[in-house]
């Protein structure tokens, strides 16, 4: 039933209202209100959005929605700071957008195990009609006296409410779940970009022995000063973290000039139409470091930013 409603609530490309649809909407609204509060609430939200769209009023965000979104990022390191950027826009598609400036207010709260702050104390802003985009960033900080463990989580609840020319509220919850202590990743991308970057952060302050040498056994931990005192040959037997990136070459292609690829421990390949394509790379990471790996996109119209509302990542990142 919800899908049927969505089909009816499709705005014409010219932004005008179809009068026949209005009659159908009146019938549906009466039906939904007689069917229960959940359907009624959904119908009200959809019909209100349809009305606002008919006025060429588009107020959207990549991480918030009118019905309330939930974005969950796993394998968070659970230490330090994490910045969440909310990208606002006032367009329905490339050809349909708001001409008016849209002003909006921002409110947020976070769970008791972290503190949150908004960059530049930005509690209100405007999506200019001449630009149709805007953004704000909230920083989640883990206090120094708080220790988070695997499967612990923190939450950031955000609302963006337009005040002019029409009122509309977008809301959502951004949840970070501690997975592999000290290691986390994110993907930086946007529509129209020919490439994306996968950023891996390692906050572990030690190395592990991967191949036994001298008096060290596999799995032994070595602190940073001890590691730095080793010979280059001995260092080859250690790693703070071993990272594997797995991907589909029909969606993204690895930048073959990347240092991580050139220094990879191993790679896997597949053959497509007689050509070999990389499907995964495995490389070592130093302690207290970060790496950026570039991929070229097959479809530049997509935005593969991670974390995202679908909680799906185009690059699979695994740790050892």
Quickly list its features.
320 residues; single chain; four-stranded antiparallel sheet; alpha+beta; five-stranded mixed sheet
Mean pLDDT: 85
What overall form do the CA principal axes indicate? globular
Number of strands: 22
Which radius of gyration do the C-alpha atoms yield?
24 Å
Bin the strand percentage.
35-45%
Cross-sheet strand order for the largest sheet = 2-11-10-6-8
- Biggest sheet layout: 5 strands, mixed
Distance between the termini: 46 Å
Q: What's the tally of helices?
A: 6
Q: Helix/strand-derived class?
A: alpha+beta
Low-confidence spans: pLDDT under 50, at least 5 residues? 4-9
Task: Give the H and E element order.
Answer: HHHEEEEEEEEEEEEEEEHHEEEHEEEE
Proportion of residues in helical segments: 10-25%
Could you please describe the fold and organization of this structure?
The protein is of the alpha+beta class and 320 residues long. The chain is 17% helix and 42% strand. The protein contains six helices and 22 strands. The radius of gyration is 24 Å and the shape is globular.
In a nutshell, what does this entry contain?
17% of the residues lie in helices and 42% in strands. By secondary structure, it is an alpha+beta fold. The strands form 6 sheets. Strands 2-11-10-6-8 form a 5-stranded mixed beta sheet, with no helix packed on it. It has a 4-stranded antiparallel beta sheet with strand order 1-3-9-7, with no helix packed on it.
